[in-house]
Amino acid sequence: MTSPTTLTITPDDIDLGALLSELHRWVEMETPSPDAVAVNRLVDHVEGYAKAAGLETERRAGTLSFGDILIARTPRLEGTNARRILILAHLDTVHATGTLAGPLPLRQEGDRLYGPGIYDMKAGVLMAVEAMRLAVRAGTHLPVDLLIVPDEEVGSKSSRPVIEELARDAAYALVVEPARDGGKIVTARKGVGMFDITVRGRAAHAGVRPLDGRSAIRAAAQLVLDLEALNDPARGITVTTGMIQGGTGRNTVPAECRLQLDLRLPDAATAAEIIGKIESLRPTDPDISFEISGGLNRPPFAQSAEGRKLFDQTAAIAAELGIALEGMATGGGSDGNFTAALGVATLDGLGADGAGAHTYEEHILVGSLLPRTALLANLLVSLDGTS
Ligand SMILES: [Zn+2]
Predict the structure, then answer these.
(1) Please, are residues 129 and 52 in contact by the beta-carbon 8 Å criterion?
(2) C-alpha 333 to ligand 1 mean position (Å)
(3) CA 221 to ligand 1 centroid distance, Å
(4) How many angstroms separate the alpha carbon of residue 7 from the centre of ligand 1?
(5) Which residue from 71, 155, 274, 324 has the least number of CB within 10 angstroms?
(6) Residue 1 has what pLDDT?
(7) Interatomic CA distance for residues 81 and 79, integer angstroms
């Protein structure tokens, strides 16, 4: 692995004004994950932008009613068969259309630039295209593929096969999800589990024949306590009942209640243990039943030795840019979970610094754009697959 003594690419090589005006256009096109038409409008635009930046593009039609997948590649040299650097990105956001005209207008306050999806992660996608443009000009050891998916915020169900297909030939995976807590990058992520549980009892008139009823809500309430007793912060286990729905009316003993459960698990063994416990939950009342479905949506991303080396090399480049790079583990999942689980050295959180992901306070720090784009570009130039 090469460790550059002087950087090939500096922040001065990047035009901040041009980058910001482009970012404005991307944020002005709202892209909620379920709206394939809206997402594809931005995919069209980004495809043109990537071509203009000298990249080759491939578009794959969306599946499961999501938008299209876009792959932007550095031009391939004749006869090179090297393993690639895979950059993972998404263009969808959690914000509904109208957020821009409502609670989260595009606006700058000091160094903060606010807007829906700007931090998670339109700025990161734009930084990746710019870094690839700069890296092509400077020359890279490895080909680079930028994979931009339309459904990350809802679990990447339509994209996972493509992510795993490209990861199989990848020497490294770099995820341009936003930076965390003052510019930290992400070196490990918990696995994410999702369960749906339907509790069934028996309906009855609340006034006339209450003893005939078996309340599904009452059984579900006990079940929530049993589930949340699995929480163990010291071991990094979180179990959250995020949604509950049940009953048909005030005066009816409820026959059905549904729970939606979110799990965060630090490693594969813990995931198997906790999922086993959930799947073996049984009602104590024979007139009550549980229907439990779900499982691990994203496998845990624990830091590997190769991941550690990749972090160290990135931190060395960052130091030359005046960035004291720190790594951290997070409970939030990303597409990096899929590549790490396949054994690809993965580094995440390489996008813009800022805060407020998934809220109406979402913003980037404009001052982070150039140094972090330069960091990514130098990383693309220096990675040579020998680690
Ligand atoms: Zn994201």
Answers:
(1) no
(2) 9
(3) 33
(4) 29
(5) 324
(6) 45
(7) 6
In this structure, are residues 180 and 349 in contact, taking their beta carbons and an 8 Å threshold?
yes
* 163 touches 169 (CB < 8 A): no
Q: Compute the distance from residue 38 Cα to the ligand 1 centre, in Å.
A: 17
Sheet holding 238-246, edge to edge: 238-246, 256-265, 191-200, 289-298
Residue that has been written with the tokens 């009316």 in this structure? 249
CA of 119 relative to ligand 1 center, distance in Å:
8
Taking residue 261's Cβ as centre, other Cβ atoms within 10 Å add up to 22
d(C-alpha 179, C-alpha 354), whole Å: 7
Please name which of 153, 154, 136, 152 lies closest in space to residue 144, comparing C-alpha atoms.
Answer: 136
Q: Of 268, 267, 263, which is closest to residue 279 (Cα–Cα)?
A: 263
121 preceded by a cis bond (ω within 30 of 0) = yes
185-204, pLDDT tens digit by residue?
999 999 999 999 999 999 99
CA of 61 to the centre of ligand 1 (A): 21
Between CA 32 and CA 262 the distance in angstroms is: 21
**Residue 267 corresponds to which tokens in the numbers above?**
């490693």
3-state secondary structure (DSSP) of residue 249 = coil
Domains and CATH numbers, the chain: 11-189+301-382 (3.40.630.10), 191-298 (3.30.70.360)
CA distances from 330 to 180, 181, 194, 356 (A): 9, 11, 17, 15
Q: What is the pTM of this model?
A: 0.86
Name the helix (H) or strand (E) containing 238.
Answer: strand 238-246
